[in-house]
Structures
1.
Amino acid sequence: MADNPYEKMNIQWFPGHMTKAQRMIEENLKLVDAVCEILDARIPRSSRNPDIDRLAGDKPRLVILNRIDLADPAVTARWRRTFEDKGLAILETDAKSGKGVKDFAPAVRRLLKDKLAEFEAKGQVGRPLRVMILGIPNVGKSTFINKVAGRKAAIAGDKPGVTRGKQWINIDRGLDLLDTPGILWPKFDSQEVGEMLAITNAIKADVLDKETLGANFMLRLREYYPQALTERYKFSPDPDMNGFELLEEAAKKRGFLVSRGEYDIERMANTLLGEYHDGKLGRLSLEQPDDGSLDTGK
Ligand code: G4P
């Protein structure tokens, strides 16, 4: 196999978003007591703002690994330890079902116990704790906030890249959340980050070539979860095949025939991405804590 079997893609980024996100974080930081980053548990590295450590300054921070229902539990446990080792508070949630969400308010109070003591000493009884919620589009911010609030407080929807205005959400028991616009902020120069975001639906896969995305995803699955391919698509991935050949192999098994001996790999790429999105391939994480740096600055 070649050193780098992954195909290069031409990714259309959205210039300006990064700066906009930074400005928004900086401007609103003075209004909050803590910063809560919601990450996709399947891609904690790619779904993270690479500048968050610098931007958040010394505000106490809570990391939420969301979508644990779709992530590999063993890998999520390793991510949890990695973040804890860096001194960050961490919660694991499935915002869709609400699993883990009830621990949020107690976790914030634990994180800000010194602040609460300070309020009490100053006689500021009833002053709510204010937390900025950060997360890339489609990571589950609205769903999470709705669950925490126990009512429909934020607007949920599957619209990658849609920007909303910031809003305060008052939660019972002395907690206010600052919901921030869903702005895309990850590293603009990394193809891998782009692919991870497209595979997990944070950015529209239409900005990428679907077949190449599917082919590269196949290679990743062969490397980390070959049994998922065997179970779902009924073939053992050949170590010498490239990503397109793996797609073709799966297309054959699915009977996606176009004409004499020719298979529809674009349809197969769409099927693969769709089935991953729906959790039909199983609980698969796409990033491991030790396959790249995690600079938390702590
Ligand atoms: P955002 O505010 O960060 O942009 O995200 P939002 O809450 O709108 O959530 C985006 C999609 O992700 C929603 O799906 C939501 O149901 C889903 N989601 C959020 N948290 C979780 C989770 O922990 N697990 C799972 N499995 N899904 C989660 P949708 O747009 O209604 O459709 P679909 O993605 O479910 O098909």
2.
Amino acid sequence: MTVRINPSILSADFVNLERDLGHISNADFVHIDVMDNNFVPNLTFGPQTVSRIKSVSTVPLDVHLMIVDNDKWAPGYAELGAESVTFHVEATVDPVAVAQRIKQIGARAGLALKPGTEFDTVRDIAGSFDQILVMTVEPGFGGQQFMADQMEKIRQVAQFRKDTGTSFWIGVDGGVDENTISLAAEAGADTFVAGSAVYGRDNPSLAVENLRKLAQEHRHHEENHVEA
Ligand code: DX5
Ligand code: ZN
């Protein structure tokens, strides 16, 4: 199983984004947290900024939308060139239709679940996505504590993937660091977002490699998993 480490630029220096992107060129994707001060109580950036990031980034873009009205806004992030667009089920009227539009444009479509959203509520639509992103903090801010009680949800998603022979990626976002990444990996996550545990370290690139090594060492073993 391949593991992916996606640093979140929420913890980067917003006036030196190009420089800080250069510090994580060994990452798999750069995670971009789009917040609208409505779905979450924080405001970051929108399509114009993401488009500029796209034009300078050497790694693909993993956009995480924490906004309302994804039916209207989410496909636009695929259009501007993001390789992956993940939106919250809690803020979307027709998640499957949005996923189809994102995929038609040529990006991966991800579905994010807040800590209070059970996997059972999306079980019927999960197969339409390229990634299920399990939040291990309440979305809105970096630097929060990892919610270990979400590991059961990751195990359910991994079990579903195995039972159905699907191949979506299982992402985890929030409080992932050198101590908690093993828990998420053992539960079945393969795609790890880390903000403060990358940009809060003296050497972000080394932090990426350390996290990758830890995730690989603790990865969940699943004989029947079909590799994406
Ligand atoms: C939180 C964001 C996360 C955030 C993670 O709402 O979705 O991507 O950047 O930051 P850390 O890794 O510091 O918890
Ligand atoms: Zn995020």
